[in-house]
Design brief:
By secondary structure, the chain is an alpha/beta fold. Helix content is 41%, strand content 13%. The strands form three sheets. Strands 2-8-7-6-5-3-4 form a seven-stranded mixed β-sheet, sandwiched between helices. Strands 9-10-13-12 form a four-stranded antiparallel β-sheet. The protein has a two-stranded parallel sheet with strand order 1-11. Helix 5 packs parallel to helix 6, helix 5 packs across helix 9 and helix 11 runs parallel beside helix 13. The protein binds pyridoxal-5'-phosphate (PLP).
Length: 380
């Protein structure tokens, strides 16, 4: 495995006073700290529950949490039973398990371009051959012989864009024709800004049928809606695949932490129903503030995505520029970003920059972009 270029650049991020748009973490002020503290206290003060919470658990995950997820998925048009759900340590582990299930060395993987860096890192040991999917849902011809598709149709990392309904339907029907398993990574779907996110690829594929009859594997996460430190996510898939991936879970780390799973179950049942709307308002306000700052300061030679949800904006600088080479000058000027080259599966994209608006105080956005504009302007 090759060390990520980003990790090297991010060593510069310790500089005092730096305004950093680099981290893709959620806003820690939104973590349900008080509720979680009460719930964990309740669990640990009840001797019978404490024994379960601190004991080994089953690899499939805590039953009541699997139940809750199966109910939520079913309500979202993806008919699931508890046996279709495997609890994992975040969507990252879900994606990595899918790569183990479907890939052989040199296998083909259909991805969006750019794509999620963590997924590309998970696939790297297989040295895959990538085919690319366009925003209209059309794919390069090599997709027909791929072993797997890995897609984020709803609020994609790193652009915040989504595939429109027509594109989603096109992907599903092509995947059917090619007998291509589709891994749908969907951690941002509840963080929509301009309207609900529309159906998942999984729901389109199932069209009312049960999860056992589909060809998509759904990866969910509580990292963006509760807290990433809980390291909780899930896989939803036909039973035979869940059985295989449960063996991966057993071999990797046995199971997700029982205390965290039990606490998340109580938390999901106890949080106020309007909480997600407050979370969306917070991130929507930040998206608006960042886009306004970009409109105000950046020259017309730079284009950017207008995110419909999620955490990110992707800037595109004129062709030929290398954002990683500009990065040290930006840090010198007191602002940081994530150079976009690493997000591109087949190389290229060196002229792109990912800005995250999720965790930074929006009061700093204008100043941050005002620092960035002259640095980029000097190269553009
Ligand atoms: C698209 C995507 N998938 C998966 C993950 C990892 O999520 P988790 O923290 O649940 O492992 C992230 C985190 O940033 C992400 O952006």
């Amino acid at each position: 495995m090759v060390g990520s270029e980003l990790r090297e650049l991010f060593k510069l991020l310790g500089r005092p006073g730096l305004i950093s748009f680099a981290s893709g973490a959620p806003d820690a002020d939104l973590f349900p700290v008080e509720a979680l503290r009460g719930i964990m206290d309740d669990i640990l003060c009840d001797p019978a529950r404490a024994r379960v919470a601190l004991q080994y658990g089953v690899s499939e995950g805590y039953g009541p949490l699997r139940d809750l997820i199966a109910g939520k998925m079913t309500a979202d048009g993806m008919r699931c039973e508890v046996e279709n759900i495997l609890i994992v340590n975040g969507a990252q582990q879900a994606v990595e398990f899918c790569s183990r299930l479907f890939l052989d060395p040199g296998a083909g993987v259909l991805v969006q371009n750019p794509s999620y860096l963590g997924a590309l890192q998970a696939f790297r040991p297989w040295a895959p051959n990538y085919a690319l999917l366009d925003w209209d849902g059309s794919a390069e011809p090599e997709a027909a012989s791929c072993a797997m598709a890995y897609l984020m149709p709803r609020f994609h990392n790193p652009t915040g864009r989504h595939l429109d309904l027509q594109a989603r339907m096109r992907v599903v029907s092509q995947a059917r024709a090619w007998r291509l398993p589709v891994v749908e990574d969907d951690p941002y779907s509840e963080l929509w800004f301009d309207g609900p996110p529309g159906p998942t690829l999984t729901a389109i594929d199932l069209d009312g049928k049960s999860m056992d009859e589909g060809r998509t594997i759904y990866c969910g996460s509580f990292a963006k809606t509760l807290a990433p430190g809980l390291r909780l996510g899930w896989l939803a898939a036909p039973r035979p695949l869940i059985e295989r991936m449960t063996l991966f879970k057993q071999a990797s780390d046995m199971h997700a932490g029982m205390l965290d799973q039990m606490a998340a179950t109580d938390l999901l049942q106890g949080l106020p129903p309007d909480r997600m709307s407050a979370v969306r308002d917070r991130y929507r306000g930040r998206r608006d503030a960042l886009v306004a700052a970009l409109d105000r300061h950046l020259p017309p030679t730079i284009a950017w995505s207008r995110p419909e949800g999620g955490f990110f904006v992707l800037l595109t600088l004129p062709a030929g520029l290398d954002a990683a080479a500009i990065f040290p000058s930006a840090v010198e000027a007191g602002v940081a970003f994530a150079p976009g080259g690493s997000f591109h599966a087949r190389g290229g994209g060196a002229n792109t920059i990912r800005l995250s608006f999720s965790a930074l105080d929006p009061g700093l956005f204008d100043q941050g972009i005002a620092r960035l504009a002259p640095v980029l302007g000097a190269f553009c």
